[in-house]
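Retro notes
What went well: the complex prediction finally ran end to end.
Inputs used:
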Amino acid sequence: MGGIEMKRFAWLWLFGLLTLFLVACSDKAEEEGSKPETTKDGKTVLTIAYKDDGPSSEASVKYYDALEEALKKYRDLDVEFNIVEIAQGDYAEKLNLLLYSGEIPDIIYFQGSDEQIAAQGLLEDLTPYIEGSEYLKDILYEHNVTRLENYPYLLWVKPINHKVPVVRTDFLEQLTTSESLLADPTVENYKAFFQEMVDKGLSEYGVTVAGDIAELDFIFNRAFGVTSTWLEGKEGYVYKKVSEAEKSKLAFYAELYAEGLLDNQYLTKQWDVKEDDFYNNKAGVIVGTNGKVIDLYNTRTKAVNGESAELTVLPSAKGVSSGYAATSVTKEPRGIAISSQSPNKNIAFEILDFLASPEGMKFELLGYEGEHYILHNGEIELTDKFYSEWVSRFWEPQDVKFDTPLSSETPLLSPPGQASTNAIVESYVADNDFSIPEEYISQWDAMENLYKEYAADIITGKISIDEFEQFVDEWYAAGGEEITKLANETVK
Amino acid sequence: MRRKSSLKHLRKDWILYLMLLPGMLYFIIFHIIPIVNMKLAFQDYKIIGDNVWVGLKHFHLLFSSPAFKDVLTNTVIISTMKIIFIFPIPIIVSLLVNELRFGPFRKYVQSISYLPHFLSWVVIAGIWISLLNPVDGGANVIRNFFQLPSLDYMTSKEHIRWVLVYSEMWRSAGWDSILYLAAILKINPSLYEAARIDGASTLQQMRYITIPSLMSTVITLFILNLGFFMSAGFDQVFNLMNDSVLSVIDILDTYVYRIGILNGQYSYATAASLFKGVIGLILILGTHFLSKRITGKGVW
Amino acid sequence: MKHFSMSKTIIQCILFLFTLAVLIPLLNILAMSLSDPNRVNELSGLGVIPKGFSLINFEIIMSNPFILKSIFNSVFITIVGTLLNIFLTAITAYVLARTEFVGKRLVLVVLIAIMVFEPSMITEYLLMKDLHLLNSYAAVILYKAINVYYLFILMRFFQEVPNSILEAAKIDGAGHFRIFTQIMLPLSKPALATLALFYGVYHWNEYFRATIYLSDPNKWPLQVVLRQFVVTQDNTTLLKGVEGMTPELLATLDFGSLQSATIVVAVIPMLLLYPLILKYFTKGTMDGGVKE
């Protein structure tokens, strides 16, 4: 290329670049920084941030439009929802940025990281609202009440989320140990059950978990006496993970591992591989969150293994005590909050209350008439579409009665899903844990990691169970002394 | 170059300053300002209202926690291992590739070796975990072939750091060699001609022509990489961590992530960043000036 | 002469093994994405041939309404971004590499500082907000418009251009800009191509900042849309997130192969660029230089 041409080329390039750049810049935000309109054509505009909802999702838009209609119809409220778009997968991180930059939606769904926000006084104390509510206060679960007492910023009226063990029903029927397991689920019977499953070639190993033993604890903790976070000992409260009960439990897990009944790859198992293992019958038993998730496992395993593979929920192990786990009542781990800076707090709460009313419940739990359910012979029948796509966003109270009864052919959850939730609710017991104060956070992290590592090494057989005492000593030295003292002052 | 009076200087070289302008503007707006705002490390962030000055509170929290020493040790060990074992590999790869004739095989090697770099660590972790599976993973299949017992690498405290090193090597050896290849291409081919005529072997050509020519690039890259010494690879460690090996590969960044970022503790995270940055800065400037004194070459 | 071909063969062997180590896991991913979901478990970790054949994973991905637009967005961001990167990096590197001026050392030290200090996400977010760049491509493109690491590398390359060539040009009366465009740039083609590749891949793979700064899904690049298929928590998210997903359909899927398919879709466009880039890595780039 000659000199002049080169020069022209360079300038052209420069200009082309600048133009492109300006084009890119011209897709600027619609003044996102300013405060959103609070009223528009006489309607109140409410900004809401909810995970996996956004203006780009047709389903979301439809839902909120329908909610607006219902509010108008039943409560004569003129509301318009402004859904915050948060790309799927990074809800917590992006929500944090949004909040920390000063843009606080009126209604916020939190799945963690709310304490900092509450500490800055940005979340509304919901106690007076709930007391003055028409319907909400009647649908609260026992655990909601305690949690709200401790931390009145998050509301989440849903059954407890714990994990339950499930197994294929056809497997259950083939095993002789099933009867004794179901009748008397002792730790030994569980082990025998796993053993038989492997011996009969139904699965490669008895049970698998994803990454750590917390899932197994749902089955076995209480049987060994790990009944709450702080256990009463002779000299006061002791942290569950350094107790004798914990030691016997870990010894048992180590047995399971050594005999191949606990998946030897569990430490590096990722949750989707864990589920695949179950569907492919590498694992005979897995542990999953009650309700919708068990529902899903059920559908999936039936699709892969046939109708007879419908799941049965196994009872928690019985020993010193029984039950799936103690439920922490320090605060809701997730839930709905209302911004204290919002000019529309009352309306926001009215909406939440509406969703607790009979009309609201129908809308929330059943979906759109004609699409998700039809009225047939004086009963409500749920359609296939309901099962495949409807998820309730807000409240799921215990015993919901609709004006028209729900057909028994189409229950809200599949039998195993419902059974799992019932089992959890039946065994509800409150835990005595408390929030670790800020100054101890990093120590607590180190202490928990110490436990995780020792537990992993003991279970996988790298070190013997006798080293448990050493772990306990190290734990106390790393801050356990102070925290235990604090516990004895705080726990009632 | 004689330093004329500033105005005359400006008038003569105005175009130079103009050329420098866009870059400087960019750095000032997008970097200097945020870095100044790292004063957040000395404040408590308030969403509504002004931030509160708390001095060294977050630093104290960071340094005084018992885990800090362990995490720091891990970071230093892992970074050192990576520098010693990974840094030379792309150089060797580029030397080897350079020996290939320009043809389909060379194109094939170059294309394939760059690929792992396109993958995120989430994916690569999945690949390596399955590769190292003690039951049927590729690595153990090979071990068994040689009559060696299977090893669970991923949960072994002795081996996990090597897993970090080798998986990182797998990912970047090919990619990083691109730079060295570009540098090699600048070497005047007549030098090789002359050497070949003089009877020099392939190895000798490498030793006396290629490698010395690469030296300045190598030194530049080495020093620059020292700036990231305290980073040690968050994405990689995060995806390859498990309970058994936590104490051995928990690095500064993963620790800060758990304690800080997950709780919106931006001040705390900023304090850690400042710490990392200061170390990096000292390392770079220190080695740069040292290297200049010894070899005459540095980063600039 | 025998000596000669022996070492060449050894080198070829080593490199071939090296490429195999890389290739096999990747072919395994490809095989997973193309396998019949019901049979994909038969595929071992080192297998490269799909078990059964099924395009269902790709069908699901392509059925996402945003996927085609996102590919276009990614291409746009990558091209504009890379052009900007190369232009800014080259022009800045030239001044820093080949000229002296008051305060240059300070500038260099400040640049190193910029490279090693990473401000927190909230600082960056607030900056973008104040510049009114939220929800714009500019935020994503400008975030790392000049990568200091690459800047220093390019400076190193520029410094190695022999002085004689530049002196000759100066004697001919060329000004700085002309020297830059007519001499420096053409002589640095491999370096520029390398940086273009580095910057390009960086833009193409950008995920995190795209999710933070682009709220309008019509602007989402490919990586963001694809991530919706890779579930990080549990299946119910996938149910809610993917249009037309039903539990029955979910049941027939294999997550591993779905994820593999997303990887394939993400990487393929980059692979198409290879021939273009490799073109610059051929001999003869010093041709037309000065004969010593």
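What we learned: Chain A has 20 helices and 13 strands.
What to try next: split runs per interface for comparison.
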